[in-house]
Amino acid sequence: MEKSLYPTMKIDEINIYPFNIETEEIFKIATMSLSGAKNVLVEIKTNQGLTGWGEACSFRAIVGETQQINLAAAVELREALLGKNPLEVVARTEEMEAWLPYNTTIRSAFDMALYDIASQAAGLPLYVYLGGTRRPVETDLTIGIGTPEEASEKAKKILKKGFKMIKTKVGISIEDDLKRLRAIREAVGSEIKIRIDANQGWDRVTAVQCLTSYEELDIEFCEQPVRARDFEGLKYVSDHTKIPIMADESVFSPWDALKIIHTKAAPLINIKLSKSGGISAGLKIAHIAQAGYISCMTGCMSESGLANTAFTHFAMANSIVKYFDLDANEGHVNEPIVGGVVFDKGQVIVPDTPGIGAKPEPDFIKDLQKEKR
Q1: What average pLDDT is seen over the chain?
Q2: Are 351 and 339 in contact (CB under 8 A)?
Q3: Which of 158, 207, 216, 352 could be stapled to 225 by a disulfide with Cβ–Cβ 3.0 to 4.6 Å?
Q4: CB within 8 A of 80, min separation 6: which ones?
Q5: Is the pLDDT of residue 344 over 80?
């Protein structure tokens, strides 16, 4: 019998890198615009030769963090974890939550790296380590806010790539959004699923007006029509529209998920690991949703193929996840990631190698400046 790595494994070194990604175009949502992604990479090295990688992507208007905030917070978290056993993932994530309770995005990167190490140590792909099985994962592809003409052309390109689901951002004005949605529906026909995401862009009255006018377009669901803390407004919209509502920014934590279920505020939940603090918190949300018979989606922000691979592992491991928005790294330019997910006509395929199965290119890392103590 092989000797267990568990008793003696320790975190020897943690390296933190700014990770800037070029994107093909500016991405606009109701609350902000993004020209490129400014992320953070976390590398955790152990005394047993295993290395885990994690990534943080901060949408400031959603999570209240920026790259500079995350870099500073990562230095603090590093000091809290050095010398400890990375295989004790739950203990480590609870320590991080106690240390920095509101910095969910950077905590998610450390959490991801810990799960990468733990599943490598077990010799299993992450989704198997989490108790999952390989199953189909079909993602949508997202269109940002723009003109109807732009949306139509992008929708046609999405179809040519083989995707069968389109998600588009809304939340600016009822007239502009309706024109864009009609242009997309006309471009793709009646068989393609269309999802919309308002990113908190409306008040409850406007949301009902908008969604009522969109019902003719056969919208699958609408994400986060009102402000994140407006649970009463979320329920009001859910009760007054035929389009199903998905809580996104309203659900950061397991406690938020409980509130959605208790108040019947929305029939669907979007679990974003970057938003919620990582896989550990995501599992709790998924289990709460399953107990409350609430179907979920696993979503993303603007992560690279590294984090998007981890998200796909998580989605495959949780049967309550019925919907997938895992197009994070589609549209990135010259992304320096080895391995990871591949897209095949909308299907997201994860590798079966131990761990996450994705990491930054070594030569790329050599050129990055480590964040110092």
Answers
A1: 94
A2: yes
A3: 207
A4: 95, 96, 99
A5: yes
Question: Which pLDDT value is given to residue 370?
Answer: 75
**Catalytic option among 38, 154, 167, 169:** 169
Q: Say if residue 248 is in the same domain as residue 291.
A: yes
Annotation says 272 is catalytic? yes
State how far the Cα of 254 lies from the Cα of 284, in Å rounded to an integer.
Answer: 6
Q: Which helix (H) or strand (E) holds 17?
A: strand 11-23
Instruction: List, for residues 199-254, the tens digit of each pLDDT value.
Output: 999 999 999 999 999 999 999 999 999 999 999 999 999 999 999 999 999 999 99
Q: Are residues 101 and 188 in the same domain?
A: no
User: Which CATH number does the domain housing residue 325 bear?
Assistant: 3.20.20.120
Place of tokens 């990135």: 332
Check if 169 is active-site.
yes
Taking residues 326-351, report their average pLDDT: 93
Domain total for the chain? 2
| Same-domain check for residues 97 and 170 | no
Same domain, 83 and 20: yes
Three-state DSSP state, 349: strand
| Model pLDDT, residue 33 | 64
- The whole-number pLDDT of residue 31 equals 61
| Domain presence at residue 4 | no
Report whether pLDDT(49) > 90. yes
Residues 81 and 153 grouped into a single domain:
no
109 and 161 belong to one structural domain: no
The encoded tokens of residue 202 equal 């409306």
User: What is the residue range of 238's domain?
Assistant: 128-360
- Pair (109, 147) in one structural domain: no
Catalytic residue from among 38, 154, 167, 272: 272
Whole-angstrom distance, CA of residue 60 vs CA of residue 151: 25
